[in-house]
Amino acid sequence: MNRFLTIAAFLSTALLVSGCAMFNSSESEEQVKLRELSASSNDNVRASKQLARNVKQLQDDATKNTTRIDGVQSQVSDLDLRCQDLVKSNQELTKQIAELNKRIEDDKVARQEEMNKLVNVIAEQTTKVINDTVAANVSIPAGSGPFVKYTVESGDSLNTIGKAHKVKVDEIRKVNRMKNDSIRAGQVLYIPKKD
């Protein structure tokens, strides 16, 4: 485009100069018009050159803007890929958290079952130790004479046991080394035998 404008300006100037040579003998008014046309042609050439510079600047700016737009689009694409990766990563973490929560819940249930078993075992062993201790303490009755072994049943009291065997409560307490009237089911008592 620059060349085209330069050639056009050159041709315009050449025509003007050749026209001037032909009309050299003409009147002075025509010479004035010719100079005005030549000056106008020079102004047009300068304006054409400026226009060409402006077009070049716009083309350069457009190229720079296109490069910037491409760079921004590339960054947007990168960010989009990173967002997709983060979403996948978040989904995987959510899945892992759910699995861990299930394991924790399963472990909690298993521990509770284990605790229940231990409580039952401890309760059984404690009952056995208590019974063995009570039996050991009562295994040798105080005093002499014949005795009957009696295992306490639910609902029994020293009073009912004494009446059933026709023995006083004080005698049962004394023979079994008891400090009070407390008894429990399964406990073995020695009852003095009456003739």
Describe this structure in words.
There is one protein chain. This protein has 195 residues and is mostly helical. Among the domains are: 2-79, no CATH class; 140-192, LysM domain (Membrane-bound Lytic Murein Transglycosylase D, Chain A). Helices cover 75% and strands 5% of the residues. It contains four helices and two strands; from the N terminus they run ααβααβ. A two-stranded antiparallel ribbon has the order 1-2. The chain is rod-shaped.
Set out the fold topology:
Elements: H1 2-22, H2 28-138, E1 147-151, H3 158-165, H4 169-175, E2 188-192
Antiparallel strand pairs: 1-2
Helix pairs in contact: 1-2
How would you sum up this structure in a few lines?
Helices cover 75% and strands 5% of the residues. The protein is built from four helices and two strands, in the order H-H-E-H-H-E. It has helices at 2-22, 28-138, 158-165, 169-175, and strands at 147-151, 188-192.
Overall geometry comes to rod-shaped
**Class from secondary-structure proportions:** mainly alpha
Using only C-alpha atoms, the radius of gyration works out to 61 Å
Q: How many H/I helical runs? A: 4
Largest pleated sheet: 2 strands, antiparallel
Strand fraction equals 5-15%
Mean pLDDT, to the nearest integer, reads 81
Sequence stretches where pLDDT stays below 50 over 5 or more residues? none
- Give the CA-CA distance, first to last residue: 147 Å
> What sequence of helices (H) and strands (E) makes up the elements?
HHEHHE
Helix content: over 70%
Q: Describe the strand arrangement of the main beta sheet, using strand numbers.
A: 1-2
Number of DSSP strands?
2
